[in-house]
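Dear support,

I submitted the protein below through the web form. The confirmation email said the job was done, but the results page showed an empty box. After a refresh the structure appeared. I'm attaching both so you can tell me whether what I see now is the final result or a partial one.
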Amino acid sequence: MKFISWNVNGLRSVLKKNFLEFLDTEAPDVLCLQEIKCSPDDIEQLWPRHYTTWWNCARRKGYSGTAIFSKIRPLKVIPHMGMAEHDEEGRVL
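What the results page shows now:
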């Protein structure tokens, strides 16, 4: 299995920098992104459909956020750690 984890500092900005071409070349089974800084609607519009997606976006627009894209469906995805002050920032998935 091939995993890639990347702090993209904004999903939209990395998409402008040949990220999708990189993704096609590397073809990870699981891709974990941090600091996506976008909403779930943005993710669904921008991402290739051959990955199943999970995300945890911050309540504050344009701030933090994490996403996982996987070719293989996990048994369970937990989008929180049980600490409200951290869970609202979208940093755990």
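Response: this is the final, complete result; the empty box was a page-load delay. The chain has a mean pLDDT of 84.
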